[in-house]
């Protein structure tokens, strides 16, 4: 049978169930030994109601069984599959990724491009129901991944992205925003966002004007993430044909690339978005998503048909409740009758002790006389 476990992290609770059962068994054995030291075997039955040890053992088993069933309910065991119609709700997010050679600068680890790809993955990991797509740009622009809700496929395709995806060098941020704005599936003016990852360099493509058009005509909010050192900058590594590595030069001088956050901040302000000056720091992208992107109004997408496992935790919860009720009945209901039987059994012992005490008192008085 095909079985799925929804919450195996709770499996450790079985250890406490086992320890509790061992402790109860040890307590029963210890009590039995103590009774044997207190009275002979022929008197134990008169002092202690019959079946007490068996009753305690059965009570411990019922409690342990109840706890075991509760742990199985927490583990969330599922089996059997059914088709379900699940409504999809979310936003459409088009990531715009700079793949120009300046993104190979290593002022962040492993480089600006590698850091940007990881940050995109971190954002996707926070999503549930949103559609994501990818546009890459350098001196040219290309829609690399159409909008999709299959996040694993998206991340696998993202891993293959690099400077080789765009043949012409340069940084054409304005055209990248225009292509991304046209790539949305739904043309209504809501539930859409563009998230740009770049070091801010641009080759006079007027990205601010493109951003204003996208926001005013299509309602697209743009969020920008600036990568790279803003002060000193970093050199751009270039791989030589022989396999070695050198740095990009212009007119005999090494090129140093700095992050230009000014244009990115203007784009975000004009489109009711947000600017994240990541620079060379580690940024918690979960906070960026929940603090900014997730606030965009969501839209109902088409309903998805999902073949999912059926949860069975209710069965185990019901078993736990039944076993617990059985233990309560066992430990309370018969106790009154057993207590009466125990007092009746002890009554002859009490009378005999009283008579012996009286006889002893009479003997003492006679001796004194």
Overview of this structure, please?
It is a single chain. The chain has 369 residues and is an alpha/beta fold. It folds into two domains: 3-81 and 312-358; 89-302, Rossmann fold (3-Layer(aba) Sandwich), CATH 3.40.50. It has eleven helices and 17 strands. Helix 6 runs parallel beside helix 7 (207-218) and helix 7 (207-218) packs parallel to helix 8 (261-270).
Question: TL;DR?
Answer:
With 369 residues, the protein is α/β, with parallel strands linked by helices. It has helices spanning 13-38, 41-47, 52-75, 112-125, 151-159, 173-182, 207-218, 261-270, 285-291, 313-332, 335-368; strands at residues 3-5, 77-86, 89-90, 92-98, 131-137, 141-148, 192-198, 221-227, 234-235, 237-239, 245-247, 249-250, 253-254, 256-257, 274-279, 299-300, 304-311.
Offer a few descriptive terms.
369 residues; alpha/beta; Rossmann fold; 2 domains; six-stranded mixed beta sheet; three-stranded antiparallel beta sheet; 11 helices; 17 strands; elongated
């Amino acid at each position: 049978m095909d079985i799925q476990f929804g919450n195996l992290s709770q499996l450790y609770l079985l250890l406490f169930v086992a320890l509790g059962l061992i402790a109860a068994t040890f307590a029963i054995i210890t009590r039995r030994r103590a009774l044997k030291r207190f009275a002979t075997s022929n008197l134990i039955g008169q002092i202690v109601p019959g079946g007490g040890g068996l009753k305690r053992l059965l009570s411990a088993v019922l409690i342990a069984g109840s706890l075991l069933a509760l742990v199985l309910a927490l583990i969330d065991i599922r089996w059997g599959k059914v088709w379900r119609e699940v409504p999809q709700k979310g936003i459409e997010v088009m990531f715009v990724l700079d793949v120009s050679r300046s993104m190979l600068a290593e002022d962040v680890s492993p480089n600006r491009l590698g850091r940007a790809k990881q940050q995109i993955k971190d954002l996707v990991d926070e999503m549930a129901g949103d559609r994501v797509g990818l546009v890459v740009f350098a001196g040219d622009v290309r829609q690399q991944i159409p909008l999709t809700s299959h996040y694993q496929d998206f991340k696998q395709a993202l891993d293959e992205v690099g400077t080789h995806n765009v043949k012409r060098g340069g940084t054409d941020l304005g055209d990248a925003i225009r292509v991304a704005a046209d790539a949305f599936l739904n043309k209504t003016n809501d539930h859409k966002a563009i998230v740009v990852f770049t070091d801010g360099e641009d080759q006079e493509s007027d990205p601010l004007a493109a951003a204003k058009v996208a926001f005013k005509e299509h309602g697209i909010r743009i969020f920008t993430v600036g990568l790279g050192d803003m002060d000193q900058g970093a050199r751009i590594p270039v791989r030589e044909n022989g396999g070695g590595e050198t740095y990009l030069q212009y007119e005999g001088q090494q090129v140093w690339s700095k992050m230009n956050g000014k244009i990115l901040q203007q784009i975000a302000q004009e489109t009711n978005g947000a600017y994240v000056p990541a620079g060379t720091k580690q940024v918690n992208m979960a906070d960026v998503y929940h603090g900014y992107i997730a606030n965009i109004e969501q839209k109902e997408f088409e309903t998805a048909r999902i073949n999912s496992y059926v949860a069975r935790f209710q069965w185990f919860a019901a078993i736990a409740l039944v076993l617990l009720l059985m233990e309560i009945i066992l430990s309370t209901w018969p106790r009154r009758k057993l207590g009466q039987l125990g007092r009746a059994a002890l009554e002859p012992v009490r009378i005999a002790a009283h008579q012996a005490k009286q006889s002893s008192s009479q003997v003492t008085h006679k001796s004194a006389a």
